[in-house]
Each structure stands twice: as C-alpha cells, then as structure tokens.
Amino acid sequence: MAKAVIGIDIGTTGTKTGIYDETGRLLGSAFEESVLIYPKAGWVEQRPDDIEGSVHRTIRAAMETGGVNPSDVAAIALDGQMGGVCTIDADWNAPTHYDSWLDNRCAAYLPRLKERGMEILKASGCTPSYNHGPKILYWKHEFPEIWSRVRAFVQPAAYVAGRLAGLKGEDAFIDRTYLNFSTFADTARCRWNEDLLADFGLDTGKLPRIVEPWEIVGRLTHAAAEATGLRQGTPIAAGCGDQAANVLGGGIVDPGMIYDAAGTASVFSIVLDTFATDTAYQALMTCPHVVPGLYYAMAYVAGGGLNLRWFRDAVCHAEKAGWEREGRNPYDELGRLAEAAPPGADKLIFLPHLGGRNTPNNTDMRGAFIGLTWRHEKSHMVRAIMESIGYEYLLYLRSVKTLAPDLVPTRITGIGGGARSQTFRQIKADILGLDYGQLDRDEFGTLGSAIVAGKAVGLFEDIAATARSFVKTVGEPVEADGANTAFYRDYAAYYADMLEESAGFFARLSALGRPLSA
Please, which residues bridge with residue 17 across strands? Predict the structure, then answer.
C-alpha cells in the first residue's frame, strides 16, 4: 500500500514541496522562488504558468532528492496564498495573471464594501481589504471583455490542482479555509452570502463550489504525471489555505493554543471552538480551521521580524560585519544585546509599524522610539523592538477575550527565526503570561497539506491526533516569569495608549508634502 503523501505550499516568496511518510518523517523536499511581476505602482502579479511550473519542478526535485518511487505516493494536496484571485475560463485556462493579495489596484472598490464592513466581518470573519471581494468587482467593472470569459475565480492552489487534474471551469472549487478572505461568504454556515452578492450586482455564477479540504477533486493526468514524475491517476485533494496548513502542521489543534509564526511578519493565531468575530477592535480575522468545528483568530505585525533586520543593517552595521567575520549569527547577537537590557528597556517603547499597521488597519501608522534618552544604548533599543511584538500580541489577546470570553489560552507554540531566540521567547512569554515552546521543525505548511492528502485517502483518520503526533517541542518550554508579567502590565497599557493617541500625528505626517526634486 502506498504510504507517502505530498504537500505543496504555494507561498508568496516561493513554492515548497515536501514528501512525508505515514509517521510524519520528511523524505524529500524542494523549493523554488516565486517570480513576482510589478507592472505598475501598486500592482503585483504572478504568471499562472510560472506557478504551475514551480509545482511541477519542485515535486520532481523532491521525489529525486528523497528517492521516492512514484508508486509509493498515495495522494497530494496543495495549500497556497489566501487573499488573491486567479481567473479560469471554461477549459481551466487563465484569462489573466494571478491578482496577488499584495496588489491594491482594486482600491476604488473598497469604500463601498467598507460601508458594509461590520456586516461583512460578522458573516465572513474578516473586514474588507485587498482580498477576493474588491478584486472580483474590479475585474467585473474594469474589464468586461475579460469578465465575459471568466468561468470562476479561484486561488493559486486550486488553480494548479485543477490543471494537474485536467478539470473544467464548471468543476471550480474553493475549500472552506479560504472563506474568511472571500468577502461574500457566510463562513459559519459554509455557504455564499447570496443577499450580499446581489447588493453588489453579483451572483454565485462565477464563484466556485465550497468543499472540504480532503475532498478528492481529481486525479493526476498523463501530462501532469510526465511533468512531475508522479504516477498517472494519483489522487489530488482540494487542500487548504497556507495559514490553515501551517496551523494544522504545527499541531495547533486544541482550543486556546496560540501559534506564533515569528518570521518576516509576526503572525499571532489562537484556536477557537466557535465562530466569533472581533467586532470590538477589528484586529482579528476569524478563519476556519482544517479540523471541523474549530476556527482560529489571526492578526499580525507585517514587519515584526523585518524590524530586527532593519536594526541590524541600519544601526548595527559595523557590529554585523564583525559578527559575520567571526562566524557568529547576527540575530543571535541581537538576542544577547536585548538580554543585557532590563524588562521595559529603561522606559523605552518602540512602535513596530514601519510600513503601516495591518490589524487593525491604519496605513498612516509608522514606527517610532518613544522615551529615548542619552542613557539608552543599542541593547535597550533592540529589546524595545522585541517587546513591541509582545505588546501587540497582548492587544490581540485582549480582543480574543472580548470575542470568546470563556476561552482559556493555554500556551504559545512558536516557529520561525524569532522562535529560535531564547530572549525573544522569554519576552513574549513574560508579557503574555504564558509558557512558550519552540517546535522541532522548520516547515509546517507542506506537512499540514500532507496530512490533508493522507486524510483524503484514508491514511490518516483523525487529522487532529495525527498533527499532534507529528510535532514535538525543542527542549523544555520557556516559563513565564510572574514578576515580569506583572511588571509589564503598565508598559503594555502605555503602549496601547500610545498607539491610539499617535494615530492623529501619523495621519498629519502622512499628509505633509515632500521636497521638490532637484
């Protein structure tokens, strides 16, 4: 019996493929960087052929590096970017490039949607942003000739799955884990919001059917088998969104568990046992979990990890050169610097929104050091940068307590570069008052998709139990220091006030003119 499963993660920066056995052991993997296209200011696209080709090549490379026999592969599943849209025609060809979640050309269609923002949030789980709704309206109104050819709007993972299976436009699908980004979904009931669609001159005609992640949507065609090195007829599961795959792959499958994806962005997720939306603060998105009956609330600081890179390059450039000459990791050294400063960084506060605030949305917000004095050193500054993420997470937790007052947060589980830092883990644990464990893997999206693939063919029966069994923490979790948790309360309250009170100043700053070019 074939017992290997393949998970493919179509991310913004690149495509990853991982092949796993029935115990969760990684057999082979491959990565290919994405080709992003910027035709105009604010436009971000990808060629659908490039996305599909990257899947072909990474599957073949992973099979070769892992020495896996095609007959041993039981099924494949794909996850991918959640907020953008691909178009398909009746023959599952793409009339347009992929309209990325980073693309804001649809901005003119946001104000009317935002007028219905609270209604959309309550139904879909997410306030209107540059996601499916305004993008669909953009293509309808700006390009009627393309609109007439579009059979359905799908996401990149579904687009590639359909190509691999030789599907037709009438077979278009979206799995339920994407629905919070759709604008027009009744997420809790797993159906389209037909009344809202009608109010915007739309219907379900160009929307895909909603499926479970493990539904087998097709089987590998002869051409796709030739391109990937897999066996013709290999089952293809619908898959899920990339964040949903990461949450599942990280074993975050029990209510109250917090997931910290500490990479370029700092992404906070917590598992909920009911669909509840953040109407009070509008900071959290409520997303369907792969595990039936569960959801996860998510918010993020877009450049949370990028801020440390900025500090490394702009402020510690001389030290960085020395660290690298001596073979020392600059991020490890930044952690040591932060550890040398006391909690609260001697009353230095950092606002981490150098590129604007995302959750809740404030594009005028910028970064700042508050309280800087002559006594402050680089150690205080880097600690303040780390503490700012903890303060943000505490604000997200405040939102969680409003939308799910009976939920008890249990522990934090972290992945990414930031989770490798003992100091950064301790800071977050202390501010949130929760223990923090680091997972023993670096890749979770492909693992989550592989679990979905295994579920589709009966290899895994209970996906939550499977996910729990596949991941382990590294060493003992970092324990929250109760004294520090109490100490940080006033700092976190001050931080929250600073965010609110500085909004007007940042709006004025944004409106200031620029110097004339020479």
Answer: 8, 30
Please indicate, yes or no, whether residues 209 and 323 belong to a single structural domain of this protein: no
**Residues 332 and 416 reside in one and the same domain:** yes
Encode pLDDT of 411-432 as tens digits: 999 988 889 899 999 999 999 9
41, with CB counted inside 10 A (0-12, 13-18, 19+), is exposed
What's 135's DSSP letter?
A: H
CB 293 within 8 A of CB 275: no
- Is residue 60 within 8 Å of 137, Cβ to Cβ? no
Residues 157, 50 share a domain: yes
Residues spanned by the domain of 391 = 251-438+479-509
Give the number of domains in the chain: 2
pLDDT of 1 reads: 59
Q: Which of 25, 47, 27 has its CA nearest to residue 35?
A: 47
Instruction: Tell me the pairing of strands 258-262 and 412-415.
Output: parallel
| pLDDT mean across residues, the chain | 95
Enumerate residue ranges in the chain where pLDDT < 70.
1, 516-518
**Phi, psi (rounded to 5 degrees) for 119:** -65, -45
Compute the C-alpha angle 371/262/122, nearest 5°. 90
Q: What is the pLDDT of residues 338-363, one digit of tens each?
A: 999 999 999 999 999 998 898 888 88
State whether 100 and 235 are in the same domain.
yes
User: What are the backbone dihedrals phi and psi of residue 393, each rounded to the nearest 5 degrees, phi first?
Assistant: -60, -35
Is-above-0.90 flag for pTM? yes
